[in-house]
Design goal:
single chain; alpha/beta; seven-stranded mixed β-sheet; 14 strands
Length: about 400
């Protein structure tokens, strides 16, 4: 009997547990939470444009300024919506301020599949890169290369430049020296590089009518060796010749040493520097010797008056607390502006269509004015000015006003 009772109790207990497990009790089963999967945002589409610049080497200051200017221009373009609905991305490659590394830099850009590139500062440095870009159908826009031969000696259908040409500067110099300064005995000094020699040769050509008329003569036409620290021998020779105007047609490094050493040697001749001289580095090295010297240049950053100039300069100053150190760096930013305008108009980054658009566009606006180009890739309508370092060592517009 006891065995039957125990069996009955176990059966009843089992039934109760079974009913409870099936929801017959008061325990509410815990619901398994559902998680909505996170969908990553779509990747931002980009247009990648290269910047080849002298980040290191003799002209590293120009390279750093160019990089900064291009990045400010990039920010302004992207904040305005980019181009063709895509953001602009800049890839920077250093060309070391020399021709050999310039070719290597160009190869790096080409190997990355870039179709548009900003390149570079210095005519001798730009030349090998321009050849490689052109051969590989990459649109390149130089920003600090002014040798006439870059566009007139060889046809490069994919090459453009936002800077003016040396013959424009040399023609302006001849007019300035003779008509404004009344120079009779002119000394012209260069450095045997593409840029400096080109400006010097063209200056001689444009002075020829005054030479033929007997009102002006070139009493010195020679080169210095680039990169030296002592130019006293060349200065001594100039002092003996006694010109009333000394035109230097190379870069700011040598110009600073020459004018400083000349003043220390008591040589007080009127000094005119060409458009690669007036930079903060020139002012720093030359010191008080800059006072009273004249400089030729396209519109300097602080004298630009276009609406786009103000927008850009305000943005640059907000980021770096100063203005760009040279006009060439601003031309690098305008190289980006020109490429973006052409890509937008063409509706594509295809280099053939972009190059064709660059030659025909008429409404592209830049920091330095309208961005229009000739069939050879030269910038149209570049003005020139003479500037003076006044008694406070500050650069001011001298002629024409």
């Amino acid at each position: 009997m006891r065995k039957v009772f125990v069996s009955l109790f176990v059966a009843i207990l089992s039934l109760m547990l079974l009913l409870t497990g099936c929801g017959g009790g008061t325990t509410t089963p815990t619901a398994t939470p559902t998680t909505t999967p996170t969908i990553p945002p779509p990747p931002v589409e980009k247009i990648v444009i290269g910047l080849q610049a002298p980040i290191t080497g003799d002209f590293s200051a120009e390279g750093q300024w160019a990089k900064q200017c291009v990045e400010v221009a990039q920010d302004l373009i992207n904040k305005a919506g980019g181009v063709l609905g895509k953001q602009i991305e800049i890839v920077v490659v250093d060309d070391g301020s020399n021709a050999k590394d310039s070719a290597t830099a160009a190869q790096k850009m080409i190997s990355q599949g870039l179709k548009e590139v900003i390149a570079s500062y210095g005519s001798s440095v730009t030349r090998p890169a321009a050849d490689l870009y052109d051969k590989n159908k990459v649109v390149s826009v130089g920003y600090g290369c002014t040798a006439v031969s870059l566009t007139m000696e060889t046809q490069r259908p994919y090459f453009f430049r936002t800077a003016g040409r040396d013959d424009t500067q040399s023609e302006f110099f001849a007019k300035f020296a003779v008509e404004k300064l009344g120079a009779k005995k002119i000394a012209i000094m260069h450095d045997n590089q593409d840029y400096g020699k080109g400006v010097a040769d063209d200056a001689k050509k444009f002075l020829q009518p005054s030479i033929d008329a007997g009102t002006t003569e070139i009493v010195y036409f020679d080169a210095i060796t680039k990169g030296q620290s002592d130019y006293s021998a060349a200065i001594t020779k100039l002092k003996e010749i006694a010109p009333d105007l000394w035109f230097f047609t190379a870069y700011y490094n040598e110009a600073a040493l020459l004018i400083k050493q000349a003043r220390e040697m008591g040589f007080d001749v009127t000094f005119v520097g060409n458009n690669s001289v007036p930079t903060p580095d020139f002012e720093k090295v030359a010191g008080d010797a800059i006072k009273g010297t004249y400089m030729l240049n396209e519109p300097m950053p602080q004298f630009l008056t276009f609406p786009e100039s103000k927008t850009f300069m305000d943005a640059y100053k907000a980021k770096y607390n100063e203005l760009p150190g040279s006009i060439w760096a601003v031309y690098a930013a305008d190289a980006l502006n020109a490429l973006c305008a052409a890509i937008k108009t063409a509706g594509t980054t295809d280099p053939d269509k972009v190059a064709a658009t660059m030659r025909t566009m008429t409404d592209a606006k830049g920091i330095t004015g309208p961005l229009m180009f000739t069939d050879r890739g030269d910038r149209k309508n570049i003005p020139y000015y003479a500037y003076l370092y006044n008694n406070d060592g500050k650069l001011e517009l001298f002629w024409p006003k």
